[in-house]
Specification:
There is one protein chain. By secondary structure, the chain is an alpha/beta fold. Helices cover 47% and strands 13% of the residues.
Length: 577
């Protein structure tokens, strides 16, 4: 029996036979004659047209299968096809270097990929999978190599691949695919997001799973724990088959939770809200009947464009969101952009940063370029006329940053009032605590911050000095590390001491196994991914606050991650008994 730990990309349990999927396109390097340049450029342009037709067909399929929010992925792919970084560079290599079109495209894709690798933000780095998905479509038309089709058999199969692109994932529903696992990839890629929507269990970032597994071997994909088991013993197989049955029964039961309050068995209110993206269609998420949105990301507004989004465009999106969730609190995070986006948006870039992860990003960037900040704040202030809107500042490290945002916020409100634009109640201004410096000086920051939201994704990386998508050290990234738990408790206590509310919006909030622990620490709100919303809400309703408090107190005294994990697992087993 072989057990490999990876990154959980989509929850659920899949059991089936391994199907090794290799779908690479062979690219030949040829030098062309000078008089063939025009025809070679035309061949590339024809491939672009055919790929656009492919995307139209795919969009119709996505709309039918998954709805409007995922059909936006196709629009992103269309923008990639029209990007001068691709179109102009390929034409230049054909003309100047006399390269054949497919090799010129391959070289261009590799060059753009190297730029993506320099980006430390996981969300933006994972967008390179979209680039290669489009590139592979183009290469197929240029080389006339047909796409390899996923197996269609009578038995469930587990796809094992080096990497999978969004288009590969879309075909899985048609084939008899139970789940998948890959050597590389992240949990914020479109491939992972599609898998979650299609309810396909998936584990990524397994390094060399394609070399360790053979075709036809029985496999288990545990998308809950991020585990892949090949050739499981009878005991392991029985355990996972039982777990699979329990999860299917639980999914049916969870629908009943929608109309019930988010309260523990002994009456403690723990608000369960959603993490959303501002460019997604919010209607399907409103059907979950959440207590609000604890994190609305706005970074996607700035992607695949040459200029920042205008005030009017932003205002209409914020207004739409507030009208979709009438009467509910929505916390919108100011754009958490990295300095690598500046040149794309028409700003003078400050040059390459040796370590962008510790560089110009978040509120640092917005204060450096106040026009970006003011445009967003004006749009948000205008939207307050339509509902309960809160504003959250990312990447805070000092009081001066909060004061800087407050100043621009007040200036913007005064301008809008003078322009006779109707505004609602002044929005609360909160901070995202994701840097240890902010956690340790929270008592001073709370003199200006109205609320706190804990961003555990980055906080854990900064605290443990671990890049969670670096395969060599990803195993050290652990949300149940004693240092993480102690810092969380410190943040909750400091915030409550000032009489203010604290929420958690990182991935840790979406892990229903840690829900009792987090509730016991006294968190007021858990903001989770829509896919796991009902499971977290059900867990909140299944536990008692008194027991959860004892659980958290015990966990805070344990010296190792392993002991905390055992404690949490034992508490979960007791709840399920």
């Amino acid at each position: 029996m072989l057990i490999i730990k990876g990154i959980p990309a989509s929850p659920g349990i899949a059991i089936g036979k391994a199907y090794l999927f290799e779908d690479e396109v062979t690219v030949e390097h040829r030098q062309i004659q000078r008089d063939s340049v025009k025809s070679e450029v035309k061949r590339f342009k024809d491939a672009v047209k055919m790929t656009l037709s492919d995307l139209d067909a795919t969009e119709a399929k996505v709309l039918h299968m998954l709805g409007k929010q995922h059909a936006r992925l196709i629009e992103a792919h269309r923008l990639i096809l029209k990007d001068p970084l691709i179109t102009q560079e390929v034409a230049r290599l054909i003309t100047d270097k006399l390269l054949n079109a497919e090799f010129a495209l391959s070289e261009t894709l590799e060059r753009v990929n190297k730029n993506f690798e320099k980006i430390d933000d996981e969300f933006f780095r994972d967008r390179r999978h979209d680039l290669f998905d489009v590139g592979k479509r183009l290469l197929r038309h240029l080389t006339r190599q047909e796409r390899k089709k996923l197996v269609q058999g009578s038995e469930p199969a587990i796809v094992v691949a080096h990497n999978l692109y969004p288009s590969d994932t879309l075909h899985m529903r048609e084939a008899h695919i139970a789940g998948f696992c890959t050597d590389i990839g992240g949990k914020t890629s479109h491939t992972a997001l599609l898998a979650q929507s299609m309810e396909l269990p998936a584990v990524v970032g397994l390094s060399d799973i394609t070399k360790q597994v053979k075709n036809g071997e029985l496999m288990i994909v545990d998308g809950e724990q991020g585990l892949v088991i090949a050739n499981p013993g009878s005991e392991a197989l029985d355990k996972y088959q039982k777990l699979q049955r329990q999860m299917r029964q639980a999914e049916k039961f969870l629908e009943k939770v929608k109309d019930l309050p988010s309260v523990t068995r002994d009456g403690r209110v723990v608000s369960v809200q959603l993490n959303l993206d501002i460019t997604e269609d919010p209607a399907p998420f409103a059907a979950l009947k959440p207590d609000g949105a604890g994190l609305v990301r706005t970074e996607s507004l700035y992607m695949n464009r040459k200029q920042p989004p205008a005030e009017e465009e932003q205002y209409h999106l914020y207004q739409r969101l507030l009208k979709t969730f009438p009467g509910l609190p929505l916390t919108i995070r100011l754009a958490d952009l990295g300095g690598d986006k500046l040149a794309d948006l028409g700003f003078d870039s400050s040059g390459k940063e040796a370590n962008p992860f510790l560089g110009l990003r978040g509120i640092r960037l917005l204060l450096r370029y106040p026009d970006l900040l003011k445009t967003q704040l004006r749009a948000l202030l205008r939207a307050t006329a339509h509902g309960d809107l809160k504003i959250m500042i990312p990447m805070v490290t000092s009081l001066s940053e909060i004061l800087g945002v407050r100043q621009v916020l007040e200036e913007s409100a005064a301008e809008l009032t003078q322009e006779k634009i109707k505004l609602g109640r002044p929005p609360e201004l909160g901070i995202m605590v994701e840097i240890p410096a902010a956690a340790l000086t929270l008592d001073t920051l709370l003199s200006e911050a109205d609320f706190v939201s804990i961003g555990t994704n980055d906080m854990i990386q900064y605290l443990l000095a671990v890049d969670r998508i670096n395969q060599h050290v990803a195993h050290i990234y652990d949300s149940l590390h004693p240092a993480v738990l102690r810092l969380l408790q410190l943040i909750v206590q400091a915030t409550h001491k000032k009489g203010k509310k604290v929420s958690l919006c990182g991935e840790m909030a979406s892990d229903y196994r840690t829900t009792p622990l987090l509730a016991g620490m006294g968190l007021d709100t858990l903001s989770v991914t829509p896919r796991l919303f009902l499971r977290v809400k059900h867990t909140v309703r299944s536990v008692s606050f008194a027991k959860s408090s004892l659980l958290s107190q015990t966990a805070l005294m344990l010296p190792t991650c392993e002991e905390v994990h055992k404690l949490v697992a034992s508490a979960q087993a007791d709840e399920n008994a």
